[in-house]
Design a protein that fits this description.
Length: 339
């Protein structure tokens, strides 16, 4: 998506091919070659992890859509089932996502984020907020198709309080289209005041539902107008206001939602950094960031280097090891090669 379009609507993460009615794309001999590489890598006793990295680590999201379809056509087996049997650990989890088209991969990520006691709220927020309407509609439709469960119902059972309120706003897939006759300076002033009244200016408590509605459903250009007015009038940016008013995962999610509309590449760079912060790496979050945002990692890498003085490849080298590290580096190198 061009920079000019980003001003008016949120970024599409899914490749354009995902939105075509007929998902039987012309795959070409290159895709067949990758399928053959995978087949060779899993032949016999044990798998050849290096061969799998060579095959799937050099793919893009659109490639993986085609590979998932073509592998089943050629070998009459689901690629995800093959790789689930042959791989394990963080490497195996990444391979599972790479064996699926981008939408099904996100559905699998949501399932993994909801496993066990307590959910991975941060990962859920990155998937559910800051999305374009058509991405979100396709995600909900696909989740129901493969799991016969309503995604909104699943998330409502996993998240509570402010985390649910934020996710619920994102699940609506109701970002307003920018209309210069409606999204005026006057309305931006009204909404900035409304945010203040329901947040920092509220005498007791915060009305998070109204805050999230404005933050999540406003088109990027209009949210930028509100942000500038809010900062001028109240001395805080919207992200700073959310940091002041909210706590925990909801605070991180709300800030991410705002930045995905105002500065999406910086927002993603910050999330990669967050996955690597503290004691130990959040491998699930890191894996999902690299795979989900791969197509835009050239921009993200530039932002990351500007913000932190190191590129994404160096961060992966510092935080990961083994075949898992090699796989993530290969995915990054495909779209943002080191000079």
């Amino acid at each position: 998506m061009s920079a000019s379009n980003e001003e008016f609507v949120s970024i599409d993460i899914y490749p354009e091919l995902m939105f075509e009615e007929d998902l039987t794309p012309d795959c070409g001999v290159e895709i067949d070659d990758v399928c053959e590489q995978i087949k060779t890598a899993v032949k016999g006793w044990g798998s050849d992890e290096g061969g799998l990295i060579d095959a799937l680590g050099s793919t893009t999201p659109e490639d993986r859509l085609k590979i998932a379809i073509r592998y089943k056509d050629i070998y009459d087996k689901e690629l995800k089932d093959v790789l689930k049997k042959e791989t394990s650990g963080d490497f195996g989890q990444a391979m599972k996502y790479l064996s699926l088209d981008p939408v099904r991969a996100e559905c699998a990520m949501i399932k993994d984020a909801c496993k066990g006691i307590g959910s991975h709220a941060t990962l859920l927020h990155t998937i559910l907020v800051g999305r374009s309407n058509r991405d979100m509609e396709l995600l909900k439709k696909t989740y129901y198709k493969y799991y016969t469960k309503d995604l909104t119902g699943i998330i409502s059972s996993e998240l509570g309080g402010d985390n649910w309120k934020l996710a619920s706003a994102g699940l609506q897939a109701a970002e307003e289209p920018f209309d210069p006759d409606y999204h005026t300076e006057e309305k931006a002033e009204e909404d900035a005041e409304e945010i203040w009244k329901n947040g920092q200016g509220k005498f007791f408590g915060t009305d998070e539902t109204k805050l999230f509605k404005t933050v999540v459903l406003s088109p990027p250009k209009y949210l930028r107008m509100i942000n500038e007015i809010y900062a001028d009038k109240y001395g805080y940016t919207l992200t700073k206001a959310m940091e002041e008013e909210l706590g925990g995962n909801a605070r991180r999610g709300a800030v991410f939602a705002i930045k995905m509309r105002l500065k999406p590449y910086e927002a993603i760079a910050e999330m990669v950094k967050a996955a690597c912060a503290g004691i130990g790496t959040d491998e699930l979050l890191l894996t999902c960031c690299v795979i989900r945002y791969q197509d835009m990692m050239g921009h993200v890498n530039f932002a990351h280097e500007e913000m932190y003085g190191k590129n994404l490849q160096d961060r992966v080298r510092d935080e990961c090891d083994g075949d898992y590290k090699k796989l993530l580096l290969s995915l990054l190198e495909k779209v943002s090669p080191e000079s």
